[in-house]
């Protein structure tokens, strides 16, 4: 359903709860890419974006506000790589809680009541046993620490995203659940035939995660917009009542020099998102290659502005 204007809202969006909105059939627009903007502003390749929550807070806040102005009503904190496991690569693991708290505070202030703030939890960057050395318990502990810092700093929900390993997704959702009683979204990354690189289908992933009671499930990033059709087809048979997430890339990138270029523009992207909404997706947005212009196009297309 396409009820409720999203632009120009003057009152705190949280007066009607997130889960209540979804239960009423409302479509909520999330944001788009963050890293693309930060790279354009000087973030070095391989440097942790989370450090900019401390060193360049205004730039992070500006990206959040641009998405909200475009129509996003869920924004993700700049904490995608915020576990101590991932930050350890840059020697910043001891500052994990600091970066996550700062990211949550920045997003909360930028939202100003116009959007729900999702504490962003991405992959740890480590391989779990038996393919790697990270144990499931260690992963849960690291994700719990990150989720707790985000929850204590005022986010409205926790969003586990871009997971390709089902066991890591389970560890992340479990950690988020242990940290607080906030709603937990989970979106995994799928390739051809709606399978992760580990071979797990969207249906299998959801069945495994269902006992952890995610508040919404779906896909983000991935190998092209077409993958979203297959993912939603699988979810139709597995969880018709669960809110579904569709937050794809702007198609598949091609390299021009050292730059990744996406050939799908905002209008075409919005047309595809509109079709996904018609198929049941309730939380929609963009991932790599998208911008506030893409979000604005979605908002216009699905009648939110």
Strand content: 15-25%
- Morphology call: globular
Question: CATH homologous superfamily name?
Answer: Homocysteine-binding-like domain
CATH class: Alpha Beta
Q: Let me know the largest β-sheet.
A: 8 strands, parallel
Q: Based on helices, strands and strand pairing, what is the structural class?
A: alpha/beta
Number of strands: 10
- In DSSP terms (H or I, runs of 4 or more residues), the helix count works out at 12
The gyration radius over C-alpha positions equals 18 Å
What's the structural domain tally? 1
CATH topology assignment? TIM Barrel
In spatial order, strands of the major sheet run: 1-10-7-6-5-4-3-2
Average pLDDT across residues?
93
User: pLDDT below 50 for ≥5 consecutive residues: which ranges?
Assistant: 1-9
Helix coverage percent: 40-55%
List keywords for this structure.
305 residues; alpha/beta; TIM Barrel; eight-stranded parallel sheet; two-stranded antiparallel sheet; 12 helices; 41% helix; disordered N terminus
């Amino acid at each position: 359903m396409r009820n409720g204007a999203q632009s120009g809202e003057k009152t705190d969006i949280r007066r009607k709860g997130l889960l209540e909105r979804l239960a009423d059939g409302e479509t909520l627009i999330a944001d788009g890419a963050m890293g693309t903007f930060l790279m354009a502003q000087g973030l070095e390749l391989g440097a942790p974006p989370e450090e900019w929550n401390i060193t360049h807070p205004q730039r992070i806040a500006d990206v959040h506000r641009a998405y909200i102005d475009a129509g996003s009503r869920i924004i993700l904190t700049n904490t995608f790589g915020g576990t101590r496991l991932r930050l350890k690569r840059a020697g910043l693991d001891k500052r994990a809680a600091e970066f996550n708290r700062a990211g949550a505070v920045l997003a909360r202030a930028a939202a100003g009541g116009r959007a729900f703030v999702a504490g962003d939890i991405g992959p740890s960057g480590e391989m779990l046993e038996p393919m790697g050395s990270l144990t499931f318990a260690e992963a849960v502990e690291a994700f719990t620490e990150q989720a707790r810092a985000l929850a204590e700093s005022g986010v409205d929900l926790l969003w586990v995203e871009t997971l390709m390993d089902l066991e890591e997704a389970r560890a992340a959702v479990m950690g988020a659940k242990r940290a607080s009683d906030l709603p937990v979204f989970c979106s995994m990354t799928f390739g051809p035939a709606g399978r992760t690189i580990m071979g797990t289908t969207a249906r299998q992933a959801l069945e495994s995660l269902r006992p952890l009671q995610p508040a919404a499930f779906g896909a983000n990033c991935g190998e092209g917009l077409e993958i979203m059709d297959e993912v939603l087809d699988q979810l139709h048979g597995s969880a018709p009542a669960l809110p579904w997430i569709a937050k794809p890339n702007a198609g598949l990138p091609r390299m021009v020099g050292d730059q990744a270029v996406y050939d799908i523009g905002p209008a075409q992207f919005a047309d595809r998102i509109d079709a996904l909404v018609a198929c049941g997706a309730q939380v929609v947005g963009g991932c790599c290659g998208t911008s506030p212009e893409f979000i604005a196009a979605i908002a216009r297309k699905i009648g939110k502005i």
